[in-house]
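Per reviewer request, we include the raw input and output of the structure prediction for the construct analysed in the revised manuscript.
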Amino acid sequence: MDPVTVLPPAVLALLDAADADTLLRDAEALAEGLTDAGWTPEVESGRFAADGWDVVSSAWAPDISVFLDGDVRVVRGAALAIASALANRGDRWTLDTEGPDWSTWSVDDPRWQTDEIDWLLWSGRGAVISLFTAPEMPAGPGVLPAHLQLAISRADTPDEGLPRDDARDRRVAVEGSVVGRWYLVGSEGLPDDVLARLEADDDGRVRAAAASERIMRAGSSRG
C-alpha cells in the first residue's frame, strides 16, 4: 500500500504563491514570498528550510529549487503528492512533459526501475514548475540518497540562465538592499573583491553569509 503523504504547509503555500509577477519578481519578493509561505532563512545565501525540506534560491534571475531526501518510498510519495497538488490546480497549471507521466504511478510501480524517469513540467502565470525524483545512487566514495527536486522559475529565463554581470554585482554590493546583498553573496562566479566587500558589510546577516561562502570556497579549492 502506498504511504499517505501529507505535504508540509510550506510546500503547498509555495505552490500557491508561484507566479512570475509576485514570488519571482525580484530578490525582495522572493525572500518575502518564501518567508510568508513558512520557510525560515538560513545563514547561507539564498537558503531556506521548513519541516525537513530545503530551498536553494537565486535572485538573478529569480528561481527556487526545493529538495527532499530520504527513503525512496517516502521521496516518491512526496513527489506524487506534489504532482497531485498541481493537478488539482488545473486552472493555474498545464502539464507539458516529453517523458513518461509518472504522476499517476504508485510508489512501488515497477516502471520506476525500467523506464527513464524524466522531469515533469508544468507552466502557468509566467512560471515553470519542474519536478524530478531519483533513487539512491553511488556518488564518489559514498552514496547519494533518494531525493526529489522541485524547481520554480520564470518562463522568460533562458535555459542557460542570465549572463554574468559584474557591474550589477558591484552596484548591488554598494547600493542594494540587505536582501539583495544577502542574495548577491551566493551568486555564481562572484568576483573575490565583491565577496570581500560583503564580508565587511554593515549588516550581520550579509557578513555571516559571506563568511560561510568564503569557507565553502576554501573547501572547494582543497578539492
